[in-house]
Write a structure and sequence with these properties.
The protein folds into two domains: 277 residues, Zn peptidases (Aminopeptidase), CATH 3.40.630.10; 76 residues, Immunoglobulin-like, CATH 2.60.40.3080. 35% of the residues lie in helices and 25% in strands. The protein is built from eleven helices and 14 strands. The strands form three sheets. Strands 1-2-4-3-5-8-6-7 form an eight-stranded mixed sheet, sandwiched between helices. α2 packs antiparallel against α9 and α3 packs across α9. It is globular, with a radius of gyration of 22 Å. It binds zinc ion. Zinc ion binds next to α5. Pfam families: Peptidase_M28, Por_Secre_tail. Keywords: Signal.
């Protein structure tokens, strides 16, 4: 008996590496990111012009960011300006803290630079800035086990000066040093106008020092899992380099990040504009990012919406197989009076079944879907993948 349990434990933990439970309330919050807020953030960001480190436009953008966080309900004491000089530049990072309920002294850092060079930088990195603002807005009143620190860095384009300063003067300034669970960097996720932007790179630490590489691989796999669960995007892995996670990586921290898969030629030119990127892609990356931040920081599951609380017994009964499926998928539930709905990630119902155990999915195109089984007013949602 003991042997059996141990064996089961081993199987389950290796399974967990590539699989996470879909949490409906995480999805519901990811869906609160609106295209109009993303568009507004991008166009307001563009309006400040070239936000070169140390310039007036750069500090105007910082003040704009500050006013955004205040408008979301963060108090002045949650928002800290972090001034620095480096490489002949003087600028400020903007640091916003949301305190965790269970581990207030352990941080999930969500970061991206707001300085630009040679252009308005709407993709590099207005895209990341826009997403971070939406995450901060939506999570403002959602309890999280871990503290979240939203950091808008400056000085990235000249050589990661703002993030290097932060690691040297904030992370390492206390004894023991600041306890960081993960650094999640979002930089240049705007895609290319007119192309199909359906994939995002998940950045993994593959460089020296290597002691933190395995942990980065694990958390980056979790980032990819969250992308599949909470957004319509596909993922690929690439090595993390040349952005604000690097000083953290060199400090031994666990890092991960997002970077566009269709790599635009416009960044660092005057043509890095709203018109040349894909705001819908930014929205989709935002959904993935918000799913991941909730997972990393362990956001509260709403009792009325969460998978576990909404239908614990039903949850135990559901076992999708095979998954990925080709023509049929079995849902494992017994008895009668249950209904199954399969929807795509936009929420549109594509198939509906009554009391059927073996579902004909042969007409569904390849991709990720959500399968919801309902009985007696309770429902359970699982991710279903169709792969032919
Ligand atoms: Zn950038």
């Amino acid at each position: 008996m003991i042997k059996k349990v141990l064996l089961l434990g081993a199987v389950v933990s290796s399974f967990l590496y590539n699989s996470q439970t879909f949490i409906q309330s995480y999805q519901d919050r990811a869906n609160l990111i609106t295209q109009s807020n993303i568009n507004t953030n991008l166009t307001e960001f563009a309006s400040f012009g070239v936000k070169k480190t140390g310039s007036v436009a750069n500090s105007n953008a910082l003040n704009w960011l500050k006013s955004k966080y205040l408008s979301f309900g963060y108090s002045a004491s949650d928002i800290v300006e972090d001034p620095w000089t480096g490489g002949g530049y003087t600028s400020k990072n903007l640091v916003v803290t949301k305190t965790g309920t269970l581990y207030p002294n352990k941080y999930v850092i969500v970061c991206g630079h707001f300085d630009t060079i040679a252009g308005p930088g709407v993709n590099d990195n207005g895209s990341g800035v826009s997403i971070i603002l939406e995450i901060a807005r939506i999570l403002k009143d959602i309890p999280t086990d871990y503290s979240i620190r939203f950091i808008n860095f400056s000085g990235e384009e000249q050589g990661l000066y703002g993030s290097q300063h932060y690691v040297d003067n904030v992370v390492n300034s206390t004894n023991p040093k600041m306890d960081i669970k993960v650094v999640f960097n979002i930089d240049e996720v705007g895609g290319i106008a007119g192309l199909l932007n359906d994939t995002v790179f998940c950045d993994r630490d593959q460089s020296w020092p290597s002691g933190n590489n395995a942990a980065s691989a694990q958390i980056t796999q979790e980032l990819a899992n969250c992308t599949a669960l909470y957004s319509p995007l596909m993922t690929e892995f690439d090595p993390a380099y040349a952005s604000d996670y690097v000083p953290f990586q060199e400090n031994g921290e666990i890092i991960t990040g997002f970077y566009e898969h269709n790599i635009s030629n416009y960044p660092h030119t005057p043509n890095d504009t709203y018109a040349n990127m894909d705001p819908v892609y930014v929205l989709n990356v935002g959904k993935a990012a918000l799913g991941a931040v909730q997972h990393f920081a362990v956001a509260k599951i709403s009792p009325d919406l969460g998978v576990v609380d909404a239908g614990q017994n039903l949850n135990d009964e559901i076992s999708l197989y095979p998954n990925p499926a080709q023509d049929f998928v079995n849902i494992g539930i017994k008895g009668k009076d249950f209904q199954t709905i399969i929807s795509d990630f936009s929420g549109k119902t594509v198939l509906k079944f009554e009391n059927e155990q073996s579902l004909d999915v042969s007409k569904l195109p390849n991709g990720n879907y959500l399968l919801t089984v309902s009985r007696n007013g309770k429902s359970v949602t699982r991710k279903l993948m169709i792969k032919k």
